[in-house]
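For the sake of transparency, this paper describes our internal protein records without simplification. The tokens are whole numbers drawn from a learned vocabulary of local backbone shapes. One such record is reproduced below, unchanged from the form in which we store it.

. . .
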Amino acid sequence: MKIVRQSHTDTSPEGNFGLAGVPLHVPELVESTGFSWLETWGKPVFATRETGTVRTFPGLGQHIRTTFADWLLYVFDNHNHTPPCLYDAYRLGFLPASFTLVHIDQHSDLRENAHEFPHFREDVSLEKYFEASYFRSNVGNYLAPLLRNGTISQLVRIESESALLAFQAFASTPFVLDLDLDFFAPEMGIEYFDTVANSVRKIACASACTTIATSPYFLDQYRALGIFSRIFCERS
């Protein structure tokens, strides 16, 4: 196991910490040959403050980077870890400097974010990109800076079962699949799970890079890992 980035604590008012004012654990990112390092962890990685009451949510023990069917795949808990993982994929040669992003999620994640992220072609350090994401964005606004600076040249939003089943993966244009497993949360009412899971797997196989968020606020993490396993570790 190779550690790509060490774990740390998020205390930035403009990161996820700022949503409730609770210090949050950010797991280490490790390079793995498979999914054996995927496990839940008791430390809070997300928190909310509602009517004065703080709720905390555990996440994953590690975030992982691995190859699956010859493409790069990242799994992490909170969705604002997407930008630095994509920058890592760019530095490893899996992505061009600008690309199409297919966003499968029950939310748009397009809330306003006035902070600027470096464009991938600026060739900053990986650590700087991690800092930009963790300390200057949260789970609801991490896409805006990448769209504004042109790193994401086209955004395809898929927020319903019918839209997913109608989507046709791009034949020749390199694209990213950015998947939030909250798409499979009970409130989404997915009717044909196996069909939808097969479609997600096919889109992932056609992508240059896939990022997957286990979404601790919306999904119990044991349930999230079960959904992940049904999509990527089983065959229909």
User: Anything to note?
Assistant: The first helix runs from residue 82 to 91. Residues 66-232 form a domain with the Rossmann fold fold (CATH 3.40.50). The chain has a mean pLDDT of 91.
